[in-house]
Every structure is written in structure tokens, then in C-alpha cells.
Amino acid sequence: MHSIEDHLAASAGYARDGLTPLRFLRSAIIHTAYDGKSDDLLTGGLGATGLAKPAPTSANALRPTPAELRRLAIHTSYNALLDLTEDGGYGTLYGPAAGRPVSDDGKIAGDEYLAYAAAVGGGPDDVVTMMVQIPKTFNRDHPCLVTAPSSGSRGIYGAVATVGEWALKHGCAVVYTDKGTGIGAHDLERNVAYLINGQSADADALGPAAHFRAPLAPEERAAFNRQSPHRFAFKHAHSQRNPERHWGEDVLQSIEFAFHVLNLHFRRAEDTPALAPSNTLVIASSISNGGGASLRAAEADWRGWIDGVVVAEPAVLPVYDPSFVIVYQDDPDGAGRKEVTLAEHSRPLFDYITLITVFQPCASLDDRVFGKVPLNVPNSSDPNAPRGNWASPERCQRLHERGLLKEETPECQAREAQRIINDYGLLSDQNVLQPSYAFAFVPQAVAVTYANAYGRFSVTDNVCGYSFAATNASGAPTPLADLAEVALFGTGNGIPPMAGVINVINDAVGKEDRISTADQNLEGALCLRRLATGVDEAGKPLTGKERAWHDRIRVGIANIRASGMLGDRPAIIVHGRSDALIQPNHTARAYYGRNKSVDNARSRLRYYEVTNAQHFDAFNRLFAGYSERFVPLHYYFIKALDLMYDHLRDRRGKDLPPSQVIFTTPRGKDEQGHVPPINEGHNLPPIATNPAPGARIAFEGGKLVIPG
Known about the structure:
alpha/beta; 31% helix; disordered N terminus
């Protein structure tokens, strides 16, 4: 166990090893070797079998060790991101043991190096966590390095299950960064914060060793606690630095850290060349906003460190380019697919997610999905019956009263709400998913966190009346249970609701949106929507505090737009057409079109769009109704990494397959009502070297044409 003093130690001593100290390090580098038996890099010692079992426990639940917290974090990473069922492909198509000897159960021996870096554009106490894993199979003669920024607001182990697994199994070193978000919790009432290894302690005692402390003076924190007891601040939401602005720089800084660590690790002899980007294959990768971070890193990589890019479902916001439109097939009315031309693409996540938070509780009543899709079934008084149905007739009625819906009956209002969502460029393929995403509180959670982040708001601002707290059975804020608080590093994802902390409504005795009022806190949803649009429900410009808040958010969003300029660097984007969180028309499709527009003939970007694939593969396992409808997008992510690796390693310049739609076949159900095991050939066709004309994605004449 490392003491607080260990974490405060300076890193200047590394000059003794003949290495120049890194200017941005803010802690000592913590080194741990793993034997691949009792513990390892990839599975935390659990093995592939243990990852698919219930979460591991600690010897002393109230005092978990760093190793126990690490193991729990890796278990959480796998279970939160992947379908860990054999029928879904775990163990055969992907997973630690897939394609490896049974004897080691997927464990990988090697070394792990962990440190804090100064946050770009931050204050003296603002840090980013970085970590390098070097497998024993790392080949000094053919070195490779893969970047793995965490997805969402996950901690430093957040990308182990996705990027880390592929890289380590290929003998590559992996460099992770939490992008200045991470779990980043600060219990304001107890004044508890967390170390880099996940252990918790008094925030003032930790000082700069804390992963995150809300930037509040003691008297400010005391006043806030009196007014709003039991609240939490989270780093992504409340660091007041809009960390997303610097995610690309975080990835580039992590690459510099990785080469420092690699040369420290191998302690080269005088006649042995140092490892450097010039002699090491470097792939920038990850999923979701980690993928967006790697795209941004490639755009900013003027030194040529990155050889190739592979990302899946990237949360990236390209500069809006009116020079092209997106042409695709869609079925918003349920009357058959027809051609749609979208000019207003490249909308910000905060824009379309707040639209969903307003209209989805009504749209979920649409008779095409109500009672027919996962977690959108009528609630029952039977406690053993499936729970779901956050559909709200009251929301429909209130939207009608506010003039936001014109139809008179709930049935027609629900269809109108759904049409409003789809007319915003959100594909009808996601309609069956939004009710269950709302059940999991995905759009509401993202909207609240990103409003705070983009506007660089303090936790004391209580934007739109939202705050973060644990609640008791009656819905009132209460202290988080001790067992949950000490394990937060291992169980959290950085965006409430997580690990017992939820979004609460200050004006409703701390209750969550969906149980706060009959209309599920429409006022809070409308407030967030106004901050996105800058106008009120009547279309009039905002004034006063909300106008100032909107302006701050608008600037924050402008600061995170991506140029789309990758030059002649090879890159692959993989995205699921049914993604109900990171909408293709405003992210992957729009980014691809922007890149083709600005890089023209130099562009080497490929875009593979996968039908029947959505954002959270873990939902295929967790929620009834998913496994028969959706295939794992992760399968195509690792296939894309394989393609890029072969392309960069092959001296003959083996080309990447052209951009295409991959038409998958859902598993469905057999005659007995069982979902059959996934079949690699039938359900998951390959990325075609020469796709059929009806599958090719084309960009010409100012049109990005998406087949099917």
C-alpha cells in the first residue's frame, strides 16, 4: 500500500536512469509487476472465467486494498461494456481467453506504470491519470503501442476490456488516460476524496494527491452543505475546466508518457536505440468519447506520432460543413424505408440529448414500441413482474399544454413526439432502444453532466435545479452507504446515476426526475433544453441567468468541435446504426463526410456502419429482448483493429477495405423461444474486401450516401 506521502513524491529522480524527467508529471510513477497467475494486466487475476462471475469482494469490505479496488474496477469495465455470455460470443469471438491457451484463462503477465499528469489548461491541482501496461510478450524488435483513453467518464481501467484486451493479446504496450474525468468523486459533506489507486481519505489531507477536489473554499463548501446536504461533486461535471476541450492533447501527452515509461522499463544499453514513435507502430484507438479523443489526437498530431486510428462509436463533434448532405434510408413512420436527405447534421450531443430528455417519455407511449420493446412494458402491481415503462401520459399532456405538441390524444401525441425526435436526424433504428436507455437514465445523466461540463459550472450552481446525491427509500438525500463510498473507484463510471449516487431534483426533496413529479420533472428537462437552444418554449431568446448559462455552454461546445482533418493517415471508424446515444448522423457519418470534404483525395478514412448494433453491448446480456435483436459491435471493433494492424505491418501496403454498411442478421429466437448462440458467419458477416454495390458507402457531388 502506498501512503499519501508516496503519491506526493516528486518524479525528478528518474533523471538518475538517464531519462529526462517529463515536464508534466505531477506524481511519482507507481510500478507494479504482475506474474500472470495470482494477478495480471488484463483480468485483475480473475481470469476470463472470473470476469463473467459476480463482482469480487474484499477481505475487509470497509478497507479495500488498492489491488482489490483495481480488480473490482477491471471486473466492472468488462461487465459494463461487453456481453459476457458464451452464446453472445464471449470466449470464442472475443474475451481474454478467446484464441488463447485454456490453461492461462486469459491472464497476461507484465508490468503496469501509473502516474498523474498535469491537466492541460488546468490549475496546479488539476490532474489527468495515465497508465502504461507492458506485457511480457512485448517484442523490442517489432514494438507497438496502442492508446486507450477511457470511454464515458470511466476511470483509468475503463478501456481495459475494449482496447486493452486486443493490444495486450497482440503483444503491444497500452497507454491509458482517463482524459481528466475518471470516477473523480468528492463527497462534499464528509469531505472525502480519492487517491490515484482508488482509496479514499479526507480531501484536505490528500491535497494535490487527490484525484479530484471540488474547487471550493472551506466556507463555500460549508455553506453549500448547509443548504444542500449529502451532495457529491464529480470531476467531469464540476472541475470547471471543460475537460473535453483537451482530450486530444491528453492522448498525445499519454503517448509521450508511454515512451518515457518504455525506455525506463527496458533501461536500454548505449548501443540500443531508444523506443520512439519513429521506430514503434502507434495506433490511436478506443470507443465512445475515448474514440473521439483519439480522433482529436490524430488531428492535432503535427509531429507524426500516430501511424493509424481505429475507433468505434466515437463521441466526436465535427465542425458543421454545409458543403455536403447525408442521404440515407429510414422509416420514421413505420410505413417502409424511404430516402431521407439531411442537411442539418453535426449537431452537438448536448443538443440532441436534451431533445430526447424532453420528448422521449411521451414518445415511449407510441403504440409501435409501447409494450413491444425491451423495458417498455406496462408496470404491474406484482413485485415479481418486469419493471419498466417510464412512458408518461402526463408528460404528453404537459407538452401539449406548453404548445410543444399539437395533437390532442395521448396516442397521437406519442407519435408526434417520436416524429420530432426522428426529424432531428435521429435514426428510426434507435426508436426501439430509447425507452430502455431512458429506463437506465442514460439521456438524463448525460444531459446534466455535460451541461455542467461545457458551462464550466461549479457544483454550487445547481444548474436547472439538479444535483448529485444518494437517496433513501422516500427519495430524500441521504449519506452514501459506507460500503458504496469506499468502493466507488471500482464500481463507478463517473456520471451519476452510479454506485448509489443519482441525479436529484433540489425542489422535489431530492427525488430523481422520474419519481419527482407526475410529468417526470418536465421543468428540469425544459430548462436543459433551453440551455441547449438559447430560446424558450415560445421561441423567444433567453434573458437573465439562463441566457448567461446558455452562452457559457455554447462557448464550451464550440471549443470541442473537431476539424475532421486527418491528412493521409489511415483511419477506421466503426459505428452501430442502432446507436441511441451517439447518433450516427451527428457523429460518425458527419465526421466521415467532413473528412472527405476537407482532406479530399488525401483521405484514407474508412467508415464501417454495422446494422443491428447499438452503443452498449452489455445491454445484450443485461436486458431481456436485446440478445435476439442486436449483435455485438465490439466484434467489428476488434476486426477493424486487426485490419489496421495488418495494414501498417504489411510492407506491401495491404489496403483497407472500402467504406461499407455491414448488414448483420439478428439471432432471433428458435421455435422454443430460445435465443440461439451467435454464429460468426451467419449473424456476423465479414468486413468485405470488395463489398457489393448495395453496401458501399459513397461520397461524391456533395452527398454522403449510406445504403440500406
